[in-house]
Amino acid sequence: MTVTKVHIINFVSNHLDLPKIRPTEVVDSLLEIIKKTLEDDENVLISGFGKFCVKGKRERRGRSPHTEEDLMLAERGVVRFMYSPVLRDKINGSRT
Question: pLDDT tens digits, residue range 52-68?
Answer without folding.
Answer: 999 999 999 999 899 98
